[in-house]
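Subject: Sanity check before I submit

Could someone independently write out the structure tokens for this chain? I want to compare against mine line by line before I put it in a report. The sequence has 265 residues.
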Amino acid sequence: MIALLQPPPQSELLRTVSATRLNAWLGCRLRYYFRYVLRLKSPKTAALYVGTTVHAVLKQWNKARWHKKTLTRDQLQAMYDLTWLTEQQAEPVKWDVDEELGEKVQGWSLLKTYFDNSPIPADERPEGVEVMVEADLSHHGLPKLIGVLDLVRSGGRIVDYKTVAQTPKDEKAIHQNEVQLSGYSILYREATGQIEGGRELHQLVKLKQPKLIVTQQGPMTEAQKTRLFRQLESYVEGVQREDYIPSPGLQCSFCQYLNQCQKWS
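---
Independent answer below. Compare away.
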């Protein structure tokens, strides 16, 4: 069941933009239209819910380290069990028959894999956890960039958490996440006045035996910054024209707006 919320004015869509919203635009403009213009809401998929819950527990784990506290494995699992319940109360999940228990077990298995194999030393205190940041890009003729940094390690290393279905290759993972990573660099530099120490993707692979793949990249280059700004320019021009056209492809197989898209003309 998809609900329709009150559409925002176009001016709001052009006033601010996040890397997530920009990625949605670049991926499929009609999907962007359904999600951000019409604001069609549908239940979360199982895969998305596992990722959301894992991310929430990692956030608490990082916050505890920031406060110089240590959480035991039992405390972390209790936190996971509680989060699994409360997140569904806030937003329903579309479960298939007998699916939920297996997904919950897999989510905890991903977390155990991360705690056992994290490259972050136990005594390393984060510089920031779930930091909300914004960057005024009006002097470039662009919207205000907004976002939340999952984790900033010592030395200004920005960490982004991902749960993925297949083992990623470094070069492909960096390319696929370039918009997000470049956006985080812009936000970090705006907030601190310094260049980030690097960017890291901490990717938990949802296999029978989960794996943690850490992909590291240096600070954002000028070429990457230029690419991001050109993508933002495309976003602004397209939203102003209301250029909401579909982009059929492999991504359609897991798009929650497939039925609406098929009726588009």
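---
OP: Matches mine. For the report I'm noting this point. The chain has one domain: 3-262.
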